[in-house]
Design a protein that fits this description.
Helix content is 34%, strand content 28%. By secondary structure, the protein is α/β, with parallel strands linked by helices.
């Protein structure tokens, strides 16, 4: 049996060097020119067939096994976030206002390490591995769709057609040594909403002559919280959060307009349908009852990430063989956070799993998207070993 953990540990200096380099030079979604260039170069040096510019700045590598068989896509996201880093690390971002605050630098480095490992074992593969280095997982960044959808449009799931998928995330919500692999739902679907209320502006000292969108906005924000409290069953899950309010210009002026923005998160399609229906009823009903014109826009950001039972079960077995001392968590509904890998898993069965990466003793336990976010780099070897072994097991499964 292959000892993928030992191989990943031997490659750790390579992985860490790449990760720190990516961390020092973060790039926002659809601008991953330098990152994608390094990825392409590393894959080409292994003799892997490379296609650049898939999904604008994405990179795809195809590794053919010794025997014909299914095509397995391994996805690794590359983009950073518009956050000013405050870690004090020697490898801190040199790009002002941009940092890898979610671990995608680690994912990219893990992906290249997995490519090295699986290339060395290509004679054992029944089928092929499609390495997918994806841009812009964190958002659209000026485009009408995010990185996963963009790559799908450019044919990443075709030519050759992908049969199964795997993806992973270094997870700072849990400690080093924890691994989460669940069947069914693991990450929520997300919507972005915008509500525009148009009233009648006027002097703050004469409110009776106005139609006040400020009051309407306040009542709508409060009423939206009743959706989860009163329309979603207690054992089901949803989030409705108003996160941005843009109203007014002066202390003595009742404004003409008010804008409310926020997010909706759900797992179950039936729950999503209910939440969206109630959202529309409440925003229009409350706003119009207060005399305002109401315009709403709801944009679907991602569906929920739902793992295939058979593939997730195989990955769970892999964890027990490769990381026998790991705390294997098989509970679903890992997070209300969203992930655009869902678009690929909607079309092709797959498994999205999590590798614990925090270390409180070293103060490496800040949450994702925090200016002080960093992780224990020992997770890099664990993630690479698990992904390489899972790829081998899933591809060769009968």
């Amino acid at each position: 049996m292959n000892d993928f953990l030992s191989e990943a540990k031997e490659l750790f200096p390579y992985t860490r060097t790449l990760r720190r380099d990516f961390h020092m030079h973060p790039e926002l979604g659809f601008t991953e020119i330098r990152t994608g260039g390094i990825v392409a170069k590393e894959l080409e040096q292994l003799g892997i067939e490379v296609t650049k510019g898939v999904g604008k700045t994405g990179v795809v590598g195809l590794l053919e096994g010794a025997k014909p068989g299914p095509i397995l896509l391994l996805r690794f996201d590359m983009d950073a976030l518009p956050i000013t880093e405050d870690t004090g690390a020697e490898y801190a971002s040199t790009n002002p206002g941009v940092m890898h605050a979610c671990g995608h630098d680690g994912h990219t480095a893990i992906g290249l390490t997995v490519a090295k490992i699986l290339h060395a074992h290509r004679h054992e593969l029944t089928g092929s591995i499609k390495f997918c280095f994806q841009p812009s997982e964190e958002g659209f960044n000026g485009e009408e769709v995010g990185g996963a959808e963009m790559m799908i449009r450019d044919g990443v799931l075709d030519g050759p057609k992908v049969d199964k998928t795997l993806a992973m995330h270094l997870w700072n919500e849990r400690p080093l040594g924890w691994v989460g692999v669940a069947k069914g739902p693991v990450m929520a679907g997300a919507e972005e909403f915008h509500i525009k209320l148009t009233g009648k502006g006027g002097h703050g000292a004469a409110p009776h002559l106005t139609i006040d969108p400020v009051i309407a906005a306040a009542h709508i924000i409060t009423a939206l919280q009743t959706i989860v409290a009163r329309n979603v069953a207690p054992l089901q899950t949803a989030v409705v959060s108003a996160t941005k309010v843009d109203i007014g210009t002066a202390f003595n002026v009742i404004p003409q307009e008010a804008m409310i923005s926020g997010t909706i998160r759900t797992f179950d399609p039936a729950v999503r349908k209910t939440v969206l229906e109630r959202f529309d009823q409440i925003t229009r009903g409350v706003g119009e009852a207060m005399g305002c014109q109401v315009d709403t826009k709801v944009v679907r950001v991602t569906p929920a990430v739902i793992n295939n039972d058979l593939i997730a079960g195989k990955v769970q077995e892999t964890v027990q063989h490769v990381l026998p001392e790991a705390e294997l968590d098989t509970n679903g509904f890992i997070t209300m956070g969203a992930e655009d890998m869902a678009y690929m898993q909607e079309k092709v069965d797959g498994c999205y799993f999590f590798v614990g990466s925090n270390n409180k003793e070293r103060h490496l336990d800040y949450g994702h998207h925090h200016p002080k976010f960093d992780f224990d780099e020992e997770a890099l070897a664990r993630g690479a070993a698990l992904m390489a072994a899972a790829a081998m097991d899933v591809l060769n499964a009968r």
